[in-house]
Amino acid sequence: MLPLEFVVLGIPISSQASGPSRQAWKAKVAAAAKAVIPAAIGPVNTDVRLTVVYYYDGAPLDVDNMLKPIQDALNGIVYVDDAQISDTSGSKRSLNGSYRVRGLNMALASGFSSGSDFVFVRIENAPDIEVLI
Predict the structure, then answer these.
(1) How many C-beta atoms lie closer than 10 Å to residue 97's C-beta?
(2) What is the C-alpha to C-alpha distance for residues 25 and 49, in angstroms, rounded to an integer?
(3) What's the predicted TM-score (pTM) here?
(4) What count of other Cβ atoms lies within 10 Å of the Cβ of residue 83?
(5) Which site among 20, 31, 39, 119 is 20 to 30 Å from 133 CA-CA?
């Protein structure tokens, strides 16, 4: 199943947002993940690396505040528990930036073609912990 890549359209909700808006965002993230996972495959039980990039058109939010709701939303869908995330990378990039598009994957292409803010999510197997960075 891994690596897994998808986008969530819209502005991510901060971990500090109100309960209903945070829950609605987590449901949107969960639905986007479910849409790209084959029905017969359950969550992985191994350590994973999570990469999240927020592409924005306007005032971006803090990267660290957008990560936790996304991590929580993927519990029981992509991985059994977010405690399995051994590595996390969060970034924000302007939609109006200049980017090299050679080899652009389908998930990113769908996000850019939406014309609005979106979050790109990639989950992959965790790196070998015996290899020092």
Answers:
(1) 7
(2) 21
(3) 0.93
(4) 10
(5) 119
